[in-house]
Design a protein that fits this description.
With 224 residues, the chain is mainly alpha-helical. Helix content is 57%, strand content 7%.
Amino acid sequence: MRPEHWLYTIPLRLRSLFRWAQADQEVDDELRDHLERKTEEYRARGMTQEEAHRRARLDLGGIEQTKENCRDARRVNWIQDFVQDLRFGLRMLRKSPGFTTVAVLTLALGIGANTAIFSMVNGILLRALPYAQSSQLYAIHEFVPQLSAYGPSLPVNGGNFLAWKNESDAFSAMTLIDAQSGSLLGMGRPQWLYGAAVTSDFFYVLGHARNHLDARAVARPVSF
């Protein structure tokens, strides 16, 4: 559609949207005028008033159907239907305050539950981890058929981890994590803390800019 045509049709459609009652009245007036002129035309051919009026209505194809076609041509009919349905729904809700209260509370609980579930799923499964290139991070577990009774996967054995790290080319770096917990003493009341023992590549795997930690057995533990 050419731009100049849009400049002509957009104001008309906006007018039909916000002043639809006046637009419908103009359609009624135009159809009535057309019906009268067709009736007079058939009267001039010698038909009776009733026969001429009937033939004119047949030529027009039905008044209400023609009105609907005009509304569809304006492409705002669905908006008018939505507004009318909304008004009807509000009137029905005002007539039944008890049902309205139950419906609103049910809707609010449903929206709240869905929001909470989505927030949890988004935080656990959908949202990217707060690390550089987090899509390239993988958790590796070990499967031992003889120990399948203890679960589908087991923590990786330290010896196997070293073998994978030295011989595998599938990953640019690998780190081993051992979750631990303990009581912190010497600062007043003891505090139970959770942490992990990690190998030297831990921060490098997470995209930290620091160099690899000292992996020697005699090296001092380092905390960040």
